[in-house]
Amino acid sequence: MSDDATFMRLALALGRRGLGTTWPNPSVGAVVVEAATGRILGTGATAPGGRPHGEPLALAAAGEAARGATLYVTLEPCSHHGRTPPCTDAILAAGIARVVSALEDPDPRVAGRGHALLRQGGVAVETGLMREAAARDHIGHVTRVTRGRPALHLKLARTRDGFCAAAGPERLRITGPVADGAVHLWRAHADAILIGIGTARADDPALTVRLPGLAGRSPLRVVLDTHLRLSPASVLARTARDTPTLVLTTRSAPAHARRALEALGVAVATVPADAAGGIDLTAALADLGARGLTRLCSEGGPRLADALARADLIEACTLVTGPAELGTAGGLRALGPALRAALAGGGFRTVEALRLGADTAVTYERDRT
Ligand SMILES: NC(=O)c1ccc[n+]([C@@H]2O[C@H](COP(=O)([O-])OP(=O)(O)OC[C@H]3O[C@@H](n4cnc5c(N)ncnc54)[C@H](OP(=O)(O)O)[C@@H]3O)[C@@H](O)[C@H]2O)c1
């Protein structure tokens, strides 16, 4: 691997650690390297809350030594005056001689202008190194600025014979501890977790991150609930003051149900209904995008999963398959017709297959080639 690739991998790793903490901004990693020796002079990543950006932090760590150095950055440096001054100004002021940037920022306020301004300032700019990895890490930011909604990662667990729940009320354990740990890490890297009211009522989940050291990384929990049936006695409602809960509902929600949930600290918002009377999923995701959310992990049941596939709102999907079988007893099928069709060639490709203890996790991504 070339030195450039090594330093870009470090920048990507730094940025990846902050996923889920920087929205509405992307989590950008930056590394300043002395050109002649390859010595790392400074590193940085977007701070929690989205500011400061990664580049000024890496430049500040490098100090005067940044003059003549190379900056590796996972996303095009910003060129506009937002709540922070443009990163391009900081890079020029620091005297950086060369910038290696993985991905152009599609944000219309930047969109190539960051790279162009640096070139105009006499900096050698190279773009596109590890673009695919950077595009994956920044999928939330890219989807929000290009489509006005967060990137949705759908997760479903199923038995070897394809069921995601038993037929009766008993709770089915499908996956083991290694896969459960992976799910909690995906949660920590999300800005919000999405479920339907079916899952809230059947499982009464907490949807928090329960990994050692990451307890503070529980994201916002979002429930789609057309008629506001979420019980005030549910874990999601009772813990809303510790871990925020947002319920998206429709005009059909009874006012007393809304008052009871809001009294517990649950945020309730009304979005349009679709033709079938459920929540209009495109409008719901646009609402979440307008709130600044960039990365959404769906842990809902098969109804929501299939409706998301039908509405073409899925950027990535992970199917975790456990070793158990329900056999003739049967249950609720994990894959509905729209999701099955999408994964079987409707614009998705397999990007990863992992063994997680006794379980396997296969991840599909929307094919952007
Ligand atoms: N194995 C897994 O990975 C996994 C994950 C989650 C859940 N589960 C299991 O799945 C079962 C629950 O399944 P589910 O499919 O009912 O849960 P769900 O998909 O989480 O919730 C479905 C409900 O969401 C509401 N909703 C509102 N707008 C919708 C829309 N546009 N499209 C679809 N749904 C919309 C509907 O109820 P309203 O009309 O009342 O709003 C709908 O019945 C439970 O047994 C649970 O244990 C399994």
From TrEMBL:
Any matching Pfam family: dCMP_cyt_deam_1
Keywords for this protein: Hydrolase, Metal-binding, Multifunctional enzyme, NADP, Oxidoreductase, Riboflavin biosynthesis, Zinc
Annotated InterPro entries: APOBEC/CMP_deaminase_Zn-bd (IPR016192), CMP_dCMP_dom (IPR002125), Cytidine_deaminase-like (IPR016193), DHFR-like_dom_sf (IPR024072), Eubact_RibD (IPR004794), RibDG_C (IPR002734), Riboflavin_Biosynth_HTPR (IPR050765)
PROSITE patterns on file: CYT_DCMP_DEAMINASES_1, CYT_DCMP_DEAMINASES_2
Catalytic activity: 5-amino-6-(5-phospho-D-ribitylamino)uracil + NADP(+) = 5-amino-6-(5-phospho-D-ribosylamino)uracil + NADPH + H(+); 2,5-diamino-6-hydroxy-4-(5-phosphoribosylamino)-pyrimidine + H2O + H(+) = 5-amino-6-(5-phospho-D-ribosylamino)uracil + NH4(+)
Entry EC no(s): 3.5.4.26, 1.1.1.193
Superkingdom of source: Bacteria
Co-factor requirement: Zn(2+)
Pathway where it operates: Cofactor biosynthesis; riboflavin biosynthesis; 5-amino-6-(D-ribitylamino)uracil from GTP: step 3/4; Cofactor biosynthesis; riboflavin biosynthesis; 5-amino-6-(D-ribitylamino)uracil from GTP: step 2/4
Domain CMP/dCMP-type deaminase: residue ranges: 2-126
Entry note: cofactor: Binds 1 zinc ion.
GO MF assignments: 5-amino-6-(5-phosphoribosylamino)uracil reductase activity; diaminohydroxyphosphoribosylaminopyrimidine deaminase activity
NCBIfam families (UniProt xref): eubact_ribD
Family: In the C-terminal section; belongs to the HTP reductase family.
Function: Converts 2,5-diamino-6-(ribosylamino)-4(3h)-pyrimidinone 5'-phosphate into 5-amino-6-(ribosylamino)-2,4(1h,3h)-pyrimidinedione 5'-phosphate.
Protein name in UniProt: Riboflavin biosynthesis protein RibD
Organism (species): Methylobacterium longum
